[in-house]
Amino acid sequence: MKTSLDHLPAAKQKRLARFVQILREEFDEKRNLATSERKKSGRILKIILYGSHAFGPKSRHQPRGWVEDRASGYFSDYDILIIVNDEIFTDFTDYWAAAEDRMMMEATREGFASFTPIPQIIIHSLADVQAQLADGRYFFRDIAEEGIELYALEETKGGNKKYRLDNARDPDPERAKEMAQDYFELWSGKARDSLKTAIFNTNEGMNNEAAFNLHQATERAYTAYLLTKTLYNPATHNLAFLRSQCEAREETLRTIWPSEKPYRRYFELLKKAYVEARYSRYYEITMEELEWLKERVEELLESMEEICG
Fold first, then answer.
1. Among 83, 149, 228, 261, which is least packed, fewest CB within 10 Å?
2. pTM of the entire structure?
3. 17 vs 11, 23, 111, 151, CA distance in Å?
4. What is the pLDDT of residues 141-162, one digit of tens each?
């Protein structure tokens, strides 16, 4: 696996080094406070940069590279895979939420948040990653072949590095095609069902329920895209994360959500709806905002179905 970041400007290299430091500090703190032997044995085995920042800036010769376009408001995020030694340490709330908060603050400290690349992390156990590679999953195969190792726990066994990733197998083309089709039919159908429920909620004046179901329609549309195209979907309800993963792969999806005011706030209302629309007495959304979000979600679904169908 590659380890050089020479293709990135010095400022990006410095920021990534700081992210690695934060991730390790926060995880070590959780481990040091643990009382059980299993939790005390936690280890970060690898931290890997993947996605657009594993390449140079986007160009005609590098179509998969990172983008920083202030005019459109689109900035490629830093995509980071953390590999741990036990499935228990993949729990985001218990082990990684504090680290993400610190990284987000660091990423936005120097400028306006909308124009700053932010870190997006996924966490998997080594056993899970090896199983995904053995199964030929496109997403993990690409990371193993193109990702950049930012950190690795240096332990050896029999003179060899102990935690090397296995070579990825080629997926069975027919099985991959069948799985992708099944994923598309399942999740695009679920997205359409959530949109129908949101429209019913809106007509009944149930604004908060409508917002929650629009969130679900959006989440399921992005899930349909990712599973169809990569046979993988991160275990998260964070729309900003899912959006960034899809938009990094599909430029046409970047136009769905305008970056101007007040539309950034409308998207934030949608993002917060998963929890706050159901449980917070202070969450409020207007019919005008719901109507705009509904139109955006309808366009997202149509675009996703055209791309994947």
1. 261
2. 0.85
3. 10, 10, 19, 9
4. 999 999 999 999 987 666 667 7
